[in-house]
């Protein structure tokens, strides 16, 4: 998801900026491909469906993501941020 947001950011040139990214169309295509990969691997809808950058670049998620395969259960990001007890994990 981070990479999809990064490429989306590089594809979205702010107004008034003359030099931005050398290939914004390529960055937009890469962002969409990475977003699809994240969604098909269970990224929660709250992380991408209402994202203003994705909505600006791609439009309505019901349109651009209509043929994406979504898993039955979303992945919870909470487990990725939890750490064990460092005194137990790195004893000694």
Topology:
Elements: H1 2-11, H2 24-40, H3 52-58, H4 61-64, H5 78-81, H6 86-89
Helix pairs in contact: 1-2
For the structure shown, list the relevant keywords.
mainly alpha, 6 helices, 0% strand, extended
Explain what you see.
- There is one protein chain.
- This protein is mainly α and 92 residues long.
- The chain has one domain.
- It is 50% helix and 0% strand.
- Helix 1 (2-11) packs antiparallel against helix 2.
- The chain is extended, with a radius of gyration of 17 Å.
- The protein starts with a helix and ends with a helix.
- The mean pLDDT is 84.
Poorly predicted segments: none
Count of individual beta strands: 0
Query: What structural class is derived from the secondary structure elements?
Result: mainly alpha
Major beta sheet summary: none
Q: What gross morphology would you assign? A: extended
Mean pLDDT: 84
Radius of gyration: 17 Å
How much of the polypeptide forms β-strand, as a percent range?
under 5%
Question: Helix coverage percent of residues?
Answer: 40-55%
Count helical runs. Answer: 6
Give the N-terminus to C-terminus distance in angstroms. Answer: 36 Å
What count of domains describes the coordinates?
Answer: 1
């Amino acid at each position: 998801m981070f990479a999809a947001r990064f490429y989306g950011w590089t594809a979205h040139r702010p107004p008034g900026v003359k030099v931005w990214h050398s290939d914004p169309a390529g960055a937009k295509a890469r962002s969409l491909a990475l977003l699809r990969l994240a969604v098909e691997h269970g990224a929660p809808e709250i992380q991408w469906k209402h994202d203003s950058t994705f909505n600006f670049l791609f439009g309505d998620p019901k349109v651009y993501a209509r043929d994406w395969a979504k898993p039955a259960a979303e992945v919870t990001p909470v487990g990725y941020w939890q750490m064990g007890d460092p005194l137990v994990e790195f004893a000694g």
